[in-house]
Amino acid sequence: MDNYENGLKIRESVIGKEASQLVSDSLEDIAPLLNEKTLLAFDEADKRKILDMKQREMITVTALLTQGDTANQLRIHIQGALNVGVTRDEIVEICIHCLPYVGFPRVLNAIAVAKQVFSNQ
Amino acid sequence: MDNYENGLKIRESVIGKEASQLVSDSLEDIAPLLNEKTLLAFDEADKRKILDMKQREMITVTALLTQGDTANQLRIHIQGALNVGVTRDEIVEICIHCLPYVGFPRVLNAIAVAKQVFSNQ
Amino acid sequence: MDNYENGLKIRESVIGKEASQLVSDSLEDIAPLLNEKTLLAFDEADKRKILDMKQREMITVTALLTQGDTANQLRIHIQGALNVGVTRDEIVEICIHCLPYVGFPRVLNAIAVAKQVFSNQ
Amino acid sequence: MDNYENGLKIRESVIGKEASQLVSDSLEDIAPLLNEKTLLAFDEADKRKILDMKQREMITVTALLTQGDTANQLRIHIQGALNVGVTRDEIVEICIHCLPYVGFPRVLNAIAVAKQVFSNQ
Amino acid sequence: MDNYENGLKIRESVIGKEASQLVSDSLEDIAPLLNEKTLLAFDEADKRKILDMKQREMITVTALLTQGDTANQLRIHIQGALNVGVTRDEIVEICIHCLPYVGFPRVLNAIAVAKQVFSNQ
Amino acid sequence: MDNYENGLKIRESVIGKEASQLVSDSLEDIAPLLNEKTLLAFDEADKRKILDMKQREMITVTALLTQGDTANQLRIHIQGALNVGVTRDEIVEICIHCLPYVGFPRVLNAIAVAKQVFSNQ
After folding, report:
1. CATH (domain of F106)
2. pLDDT at C51
3. Is residue B96 over pLDDT 80?
4. d(CA C110, CA C113)
5. Which end of chain E, N or C, is less packed with Cβ atoms under 10 Å?
């Protein structure tokens, strides 16, 4: 299995088959290289140990929450966090933990996305 | 032990007695309320379980790395992460994991701070 | 009257009863602690004098405008600014004053929100 | 032709007559000064040589992509870039080139806007 | 008195003659146009009433504090705020008021600059 | 010549041999993977045509200028821009062109770095 195939397998297991397909579909006609690069990112995250997938998704959610203007990516990775075993309580606690560092607006935006994801399950 | 005393105990155990004292010293004459608020933040992080201190420092480092213009806080919390049991390899891996989400400049800034902290130990 | 009750009273007087209720409703099932924390923030803003509510809402609008990805919060606080006596002309002038510091995109986003708020009154 | 007239002429030639009119319409009742200032910005961009309009729109798209929370402005300036001769491939390549510097979320947001603009042509 | 002369007069009265001269000196050989544009910004801030200079400097300090990576500009405008009558307590209170919106790192950075400015007086 | 070798060759030709060596030195003991990834980024920038190196460095400078807290990277890429044929006047004009989009603080920070780079030549 090459890097792209492994990346696809990991991406599907983390963000779900449907979301993974949507990423491919949204990029294949305009910038297929970006799709390939997301596959390589998942492949690498899988192969470089040190952090497990649960820790990685917690970090990803934190980075997206902090950066702002990332609602689409946050939706995918809050679902991804749930898929790899992060609990709802842990996701909400990540948001609360970030409050002193990033302030209410970023945290409330993330909570709104989490609420949406939780209700769609 | 009241909230402030517990917050001080936790802050000292996480970022170290010396750094904790420096925070107090830097704020006591100009904005002592902000010092008290950092104590309450540490008190809360201790009391609300769900995430342990190691997870919390990993999240804090991620939020600071992503936000930018946070070298001073990153220095304190990379040391804090080490103090609560995050390994050097895990800290470096957090930085690498964030690369696809935040780009090289934020990651290289964080690596430069980590290098400084590691060499001061 | 305890801190939470006073916080609620102030929050209602600043952002309006309806918006205050919406904040509570949106958080009570997922992160009630965050709702409590917003109440304490309003309680504190009320009790620590030095700046009056009008100045505080001008500062809040500026911080939200500058931070970006804050349309929801800006909507609430532009209405809040009007509620505590900031005029429409002052809100527009805050946006214009920020232009040299933050650039057109942030300012035009804020103006679009202001326009919406003004037309809903 | 005074600065405002020239600015309007340039703005129309870059972002299109319709989009130019929409900017005027959205600002004329709430903050006409901001409309005048955008006209002066286009007038200046035209008169200060050194960079040509194609280079300027490439730079503008990059700045908007990087800043985040700029979907409205990005829509106008990706169309503007096309109007002054930047090709679709070049716009996509700007997004890809920025990936190592700003990360996936900003780049994927810009690609989504580009896709929308391309499909509306 | 033309716009540039008035802008210079206002800039000197707000940020001080020495700081005003430093801005001119730092820009005159590399980008004199940017110096002229800061003069026009001060001229406009003076002529468009609605907000007085004290309110404007409070807004400017807030925008700079929130934006991050603005230590040089914050130094000038915290001094400017003092020069037009904002008190030290008000400047510290602006920082504290922003805490729930922008988080500790931005606020502590601003407090560090304020401390430096206060001690240089 | 493999991708890493070509990446090194391009990195040396863009940012200079000395700066390229400094990047390697700063990363080799703490995060050698990040050094390899910068090499691959330069390799790709070289191989995917569409934009030439001069356009790429103009875009990179714009992205760094806009992002903020990027002084180290901006220093390298303003020098890089000069090395691939962007003139001093064009670099200054990029900064001025960005003013309406990002505001004075980001632009003045970039101008200060540019001044330093120009004076070191």
Report:
1. 1.20.1290.10
2. 97
3. yes
4. 5
5. C
Angle at C59 between CA C54 and CA C61, to 5 degrees: 95
pLDDT at E109: 98
pLDDT for position B120: 87
Residues of chain F in Cβ contact (below 8 Å) with chain E: 68-69, 92, 95-96, 99, 103-109, 111-112, 114-115, 118
Say whether both C96 and C39 belong to one domain. no
What span, in angstroms and rounded, lies between the C-alpha atoms of D16 and D75?
Answer: 12
Please indicate, yes or no, whether residues F83 and F112 belong to a single structural domain of this protein: yes
Helices F71-83 and F88-102: crossing angle in degrees, nearest 10, is 140
pLDDT of residue E101: 97
ipTM (interface predicted TM): 0.95
pLDDT, tens only, A73-85: 999 999 999 999 9
Say which of C96, C105, C118 has its CB closest to residue D73.
C105
Burial class (CB in 10 A: 0-12, 13-18, 19+), B50: middle
**C15 and C74 both lie in a single domain:** no
C95 shares a domain with C63 = yes
Cα nearest neighbour of C105 on chain D? D70
Please state, in angstroms and rounded to a whole number, the distance separating the CA atoms of residues E39 and E42: 5
| Tokens 């008290």, located at residue | B36
Residues B63 and B118 placed together within one structural domain of the fold: yes
Of C58, C118, C111, the residue nearest C88 (C-alpha): C118
pLDDT score, position B90? 98
- Domain range for A36: 1-50
Region at F101 (left for phi over 0; alpha for psi -120 to 50; beta for the rest): alpha
This model's pTM is above 0.90? yes
CB atoms within 10 A of CB E71: 17
Mark yes or no for CB contact D103/B103 under 8 Å: yes
DSSP string, E62-82: HHHHHH-S-HHHHHHHHHHHH
CB C30 within 8 A of CB A118: yes
Residue of D nearest to B105 (CA): D101
Q: Which residue from C26, C34, C68 is facing A107, i.e. has the nearest CB?
A: C34
| Co-location of D106 and D57 in the same domain | yes
Return the DSSP state at D121. Answer: -
3-state secondary structure of A54: helix
Name the closest residue on chain F to residue C99, using Cα atoms. Answer: F103
User: Looking at the structure, do residues F33 and F58 belong to the same domain, yes or no?
Assistant: no
Cα three-residue angle D66-D106-B113, rounded to 5 degrees: 75
The minimal CB distance from E51 to the residues C50, C60, C93 is found for C93
pLDDT digits (tens, 9 = 90+) for F58-111: 999 999 999 999 999 999 999 999 999 999 999 999 999 999 999 999 999 999
Kindly report the nearest CA distance between residue C31 and chain F, in angstroms: 32
**Predicted pLDDT at B7:** 96
